[in-house]
Write a structure and sequence with these properties.
This protein is α+β, with helices and mostly antiparallel strands and 759 residues long. It folds into three domains: 174 residues, YVTN repeat-like/Quinoprotein amine dehydrogenase (Methylamine Dehydrogenase, Chain H, 7 Propeller), CATH 2.130.10.10; 165 residues, no CATH class; 219 residues, MetI-like fold. The strands form eight sheets. Strands 6, 7, 8, 9 and 10 form a five-stranded antiparallel β-sheet that branches. A four-stranded antiparallel β-sheet has the order 1-29-28-27, with no helix packed on it. A hairpin with a 5-residue loop joins strand 27 and strand 28. Helix 1 crosses helix 16. The longest helix is centred in the first third of the chain and has 54 residues. The two termini are 61 Å apart.
Length: 759
């Protein structure tokens, strides 16, 4: 028995060891696979995020598509030739205005007649021309053979009967009465007419046989009870085109400018803001080519720009460009892809800066001015398009050919405002003196031109990160080096956790403090802040020199590694003195107000500027960079440091030539991770900057970043809209920024690691 006991005990121990080994191997395998699964899951999730962003963004780069819906003969052909076509908001009812003074309303799907209304004309009166005002106000003016005009407003009432469905009823109104009003004082037939209606006045303009232009204005005055509208009529005359026949006449929607154009393409641009002192501002050629005539002439939505079509199929946009110290000047700011023949009709969209154009061969072009984009060019009719109408929502069009046939076509064109040039290039926006980068996604007026340039907010992102890194990198890296190599372990146990715990501070708190406390503080003590940046290094060097000149018995009382604590009172004293003398410096050098001095010197100053962002974001980024860099420096093998010191190198030489090189991969990783943290920061830049998307590297100006822009505007954007998808594009750009910077940092880190791993 005794002989078998040791063997049994040995077998028992061997069995336990075997079980323990298998358990450890199982745990190692489980952890290895779990870590691998987690890493792959992270990569898959990031990839899915990328593809989701891409899936939301891609539709904004798609072109327009046409979907033929129906084709039929012109309703009520006996009522005469079509002068104008229009479609109501729901694209269910259309209007055909004829040369006999009839307004024919019909269904767009099959041409079924809904209403046939005639304007009140005398037996000896006939329609000689028709003027159409701003599209969204649905105003028409019939020019008559006796020099008078009849103004008609058409609108639609929508009702929902008990039996279900929707009923759209056309309604006609006569803003200045059912009797025609005098326009031509000589009683001559009106061949060219312009009309525009607004909140305060209604204007009519027409050329006279003596070469002048007549401007008839009806000033609106609401009665005391608000139930009636009274009109005050005035009549003014302007010098018209000399020795030329006016072929086109337009009044802008604000009734401040009048445009008269001749067939040879000469434009006469008038200021009629005050009709009594109306004047010619500019006379210029629109086409600039011999033998080419003007065939189409319309105002773009908003009335600031003109759309011009020529007999050779070319299309131009002219706009009033403001001039410093003078009136605006009409300037050709864009030329679009030409059509194949003479431009027959131009129809601007009602609520966007797009337009439709057709030529003599029945080819249709869909364009957008701001994006400078041709979305579609495609034939819709076999012959010339006599008349063209676009629905207010730009989702359908109605076209009539020479044979009197109507074609109703659906349009799929959700995001015409976006192009690569609109996103990343300089765009010449209306009322801007020159092309520029702008971000302005919304405004209070309906004729607003969206500005979706990503350049200013991308620039702001990099600018904010740059100033944050200027503050954070020197302090974090130098602090990490001192903490890891020169600080006593006891002090390091206090300093390192204290700095790392700073990273747990919510950024919203930092942004709140930066916006409400730091920004006013920096503004009030601006000279002291700058003097502190200059004086502080010299104060520290002076303190180090004084400490170095101290007797050894004094210096030896401070244990090695605790010298850094002696700089705390020095830093506090220099900072206090710098801020204390700030008012004196402001009085001596900046006339008592540095902000006003900067402004008068041509340097714009914003209270929430790059200085505030740099200080606040730098404070937020320091813990990230410090922690990683300190670990990298502290992890340098001690035998390398001891060997360098044993060979006679000084501690500083050892630090620069051994420690820094060995720890360089980790230090570079710390900087790149900190930079990525700064690029993606949201709350600090949201609360500590003016959130103005300006491109200015000045430290006194604010900025708007990609992340802050998304946070501000995403809750207000309509899901699926162009604005919504552009914000997702901004998120995709931010994603690309962080991916590229992190990839670059990893590549450099690996190269540094391979280079210095043999040390």
């Amino acid at each position: 028995m005794s002989d078998n006991a040791p063997a049994s005990s040995l077998d028992s121990h061997s069995l336990k060891a075997s079980r323990h080994l298998r358990w450890r191997l199982w745990k190692d395998a489980f952890v290895r696979h779990a870590v691998g699964f987690g890493g792959i899951s992270v990569i898959i999730i990031i990839t899915l995020i990328f593809f989701y962003l891409l899936w939301v963004v891609l539709p904004i780069f798609s072109g327009a598509e046409l979907h033929p819906l129906s084709q039929y003969t012109t309703p009520a052909p006996e009522r005469g030739r079509t002068l104008h076509l229009a479609v109501e908001e729901q694209a269910e009812v259309a209007l055909r205005v004829t040369d006999t003074g009839h307004l024919v309303f019909f269904r767009t799907t099959d041409g079924q007649l809904i209403r046939d209304a005639a304007i009140p004309l005398k037996p000896d009166q006939r329609v000689t021309t028709l003027a159409v005002g701003q599209a969204n106000r649905a105003i028409l003016a019939f020019g008559l053979s006796d020099g008078t005009a009849l103004v008609v407003h058409h609108r639609y009432e929508v009702s929902y009967p008990p039996e279900g469905g929707r009923v759209i009823t056309p309604v006609l109104e006569y803003p200045v009465g059912e009797a025609p009003v005098d326009v031509d004082p000589f009683g001559k037939p009106i061949n060219v007419l312009a009309v525009q209606d607004g909140e305060e006045r209604l204007s009519l303009a027409a050329p006279l046989h003596d070469g002048r232009l007549v401007l008839v204005t009806y000033m609106k005055e609401e009665s005391f009870l608000g139930d009636e509208m009274a009109f005050e009529r005035r009549e003014d005359f302007l010098h018209g085109p000399t020795n030329r026949t006016t072929a086109f006449l337009r009044i802008d929607q604000d009734q401040q400018e009048l445009y008269a154009a001749t067939e040879d393409g000469t434009l006469f641009y008038y200021d009629i803001n005050d009709p009594e002192s109306a004047s010619l501002l500019q006379q210029l050629p629109l086409l600039g080519q011999e033998g080419v005539s003007l065939t189409a002439f319309e105002s773009l939505m908003g009335g600031i720009s003109l759309l011009v079509g020529s007999s050779d199929g070319r299309l131009y946009q002219w706009s009033a460009v403001p001039q410093e110290g003078g009136p605006p000047v009409m300037t050709r700011i864009r030329e679009f892809d030409p059509l194949s023949d003479a431009v027959v009709s131009l129809r601007p969209e009602h609520h966007r800066k797009g337009f439709l154009a057709t030529d003599a061969r029945g080819k249709l072009g869909i364009y957008h001015t701001t994006a400078h984009r041709t979305l579609l060019q495609e034939p819709i009719l076999d012959g010339a398009v006599r008349r063209l109408a676009v629905a207010p929502r730009a989702n359908a069009l109605l076209a009539e050919d020479d044979a009197g046939n109507l074609r109703f076509v659906g349009i799929e064109n959700e995001h015409p405002e976006i192009s690569w040039s609109a996103l990343w290039g300089k765009v010449w926006y209306e009322s801007y003196p020159e092309p520029s980068y702008q971000w302005q996604s919304s405004a209070a007026t309906s004729d607003f031109e969206p500005k979706f340039s990503l350049v200013p907010i991308s620039f702001g992102t990099l600018k904010a990160a740059f100033y944050a890194m200027v503050i954070a990198v020197p302090l974090a890296i130098m602090g990490a080096i001192f903490t890891a190599q020169f600080m006593t372990p006891r002090m390091r146990k206090v300093v390192k956790p204290s700095i790392e715990i700073m990273e747990a501070l919510p950024t919203v708190i930092l942004g709140f403090l930066a916006g409400l406390w730091l920004a006013p503080f920096v503004e009030n003590y601006l000279p002291g802040i700058f003097s502190m940046l200059i004086v502080m290094p010299f104060g520290i060097l002076l303190a180090a020199y004084v400490w170095h000149r101290m007797p050894e018995r004094v210096r030896h009382r401070v244990p090695d590694g605790w010298e850094g604590a002696l700089l705390i009172p020095v830093i506090l004293l220099v900072g206090y003195v710098s801020l204390a003398v700030s008012p004196l410096l402001e009085t001596m050098f900046f006339d008592g107000d540095m902000r006003q001095w900067l402004t008068s010197s041509g340097i714009a100053f914003d209270q929430r500027n790059s200085i505030v962002v740099g200080l606040a974001m730098g404070f937020a980024v320091i813990p990230t960079i410090f922690s990683i860099a300190e670990d990298a420096v502290f992890a340098v093998p001690k035998h390398l440091i001891n060997g360098s010191l044993a060979l006679g190198a000084t501690p500083w030489q050892t630090m620069m030539r051994v420690v820094m090189l060995t720890a360089s991969p980790g230090i570079f990783s710390a900087i790149m991770i900190g930079f990525g943290r700064a690029v993606g920061e949201t709350m600090i830049v949201l609360m500590a900057t003016g959130n103005t998307p300006v491109m200015d590297m000045s430290i006194f100006q604010g900025m708007r970043t990609l992340s802050a822009n998304i946070a501000v505007e995403m809750p207000e954007s309509e899901v699926g809209s162009t604005h919504y998808r552009v914000l997702f594009l901004a998120a995709l750009v931010l994603f690309a920024f962080t991916f590229l910077f992190n990839t670059f940092g990893e590549v450099v880190r690996q190269r540094l690691r391979r280079r210095y791993s043999s040390m």
